[in-house]
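Troubleshooting: if your tokenizer reports a length mismatch, compare your output against this known-good record of 347 residues.
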Amino acid sequence: MIGKMKVAVMTGIGKMEFIEREIPQPKPHEVLVKLEYVGVCGSDLHYYENGRIGGFVVKPPFVLGHEPGGIVEEVGSAVTRLKKGDKVALEPGKTCGHCEFCRSGRYNLCPEVVFFATPPVDGVFQEYVAHEADLCFKLPENVSTLEGALIEPLAVGFHAALTGEGRIGQAAAVTGSGCIGLVSMLALKALGVSRVYMTDVVDKRLEKAKSLGADGVINAAAADPLKVLGELTGGKGLDLVIETTGTETAAAQGIGALKKGGTLVFVGYSKTGMMNLPMGLALDKELTMKTIFRYRHIYPLAIDAVFRGKVDIKNIVTNIFDFDDIQNAMDQSVHNKAEIVKSVIKI
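Known-good structure output:
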């Protein structure tokens, strides 16, 4: 396809503008996708608000967005698995394929990964993108491109739940009820975890968690999570905690709420990259502590969970903004976090 496309670029801290660029041409192993929905991730908001995350620094003009769903418009000459008109969810990270991590199947740890909206790589707040066909996963007929755009965060949730070895018969808690907390809860429930409790300090997020199937919610600003979780588990404690807030307080509460031999999975990044935690208590309990980075080999599982109705992913969305309204969308998502749980841009 020859022509121009509209692209939303970040031109400075808190500033979005539109420009035109050439529609990309797919290489032999790529497909051209007409994007329909792109989720707004917490990392997008952090770049928008602060211009950097750690060593990744935005150099404007920069394109945000890495949670895309759309429809195949063209296929490269070597592509046989997809055809024009197929609905797809796009996995945003292209890896080298030959390092020790790729060769061992842990490709999410590839040091040469090219990942949408991770500086200096542009994201996909735009009308079209050419992407590796092997990273474009066909969606079943009953799965929409809106849901396809939500497969990326859901993959994070499943990676966390699987890393924690969540299973039937367990009692678990997720600290933080933002998007990643919610998808972690949904993944735990899909895996059969018997009871999943959610904590947060924002009532709107806890209401959303309850509506999506959480077995109990706790406002940590209004009640002592350790006391409430102790009561909910009959004093036994939790088998598993997934920590998504990146705060010392929530992580320490997770350690306190776990039973002996329990597991804590760290997902959220702290603002400083450092935490002071009650390690003596963790040692006394012989806890297992794990971390995750993005995901690997999860997209087919996540799509199947949505297809089979195991995960109600579309209802994590609280706000859908038109592409033309992207400045307002970003501003609202940054400054109205008490009301907006998950934003999506309709391209």
